[in-house]
Automatic annotation (TrEMBL):
PROSITE patterns: 2FE2S_FER_1. GO terms for biological process: P450-containing electron transport chain. Coiled coil: none annotated. Pfam families: Fer2. This is Na(+)-translocating NADH-quinone reductase subunit F. Belongs to the adrenodoxin/putidaredoxin family. PANTHER family: FERREDOXIN-2, MITOCHONDRIAL, FERREDOXIN/ADRENODOXIN. CDD domains: fer2. Residues 8-86 form the 2Fe-2S ferredoxin-type domain. Its cofactor is [2Fe-2S] cluster.
């Protein structure tokens, strides 16, 4: 499996092994990386994440993300870490950018 780069809100970069169909929040937890979250249902948006690279390897934007994030945010490549799942191997780089 390829690696995924997770950049915390403090700018710390972590390389983790991609696990398909696991949310970024769960993957961060598993690897003991601080990735803020509260609900894991797409409501609180504490896990707001900017996709820096590899959007084509991720799942489609979910209905929860469409409800919680403004259209302009989605166009600027913001997603919710509790909704993002890697679907295919490829270079993916994500940055935790909470409000």
């Amino acid at each position: 499996m390829k690696e995924l780069t997770l950049v915390t809100k403090l700018g710390e970069s972590h390389e983790v092994i991609i696990e398909k169909n696991m949310t970024i929040v769960k993957l961060a937890k598993k690897n003991k990386i601080q990735w803020g979250h509260a609900c894991e249902r797409g409501i609180c948006a504490q896990c707001r994440t900017k996709v820096l690279e590899g959007a084509e390897f991720l799942n489609e934007v979910t209905k929860e993300e469409k409800l919680r994030l403004k259209k302009a945010e989605r166009q600027d490549h913001y997603r919710l870490g509790c909704q993002i799942q890697v679907q295919e191997e490829g270079p993916v780089r994500l940055w935790h950018v909470p409000y």
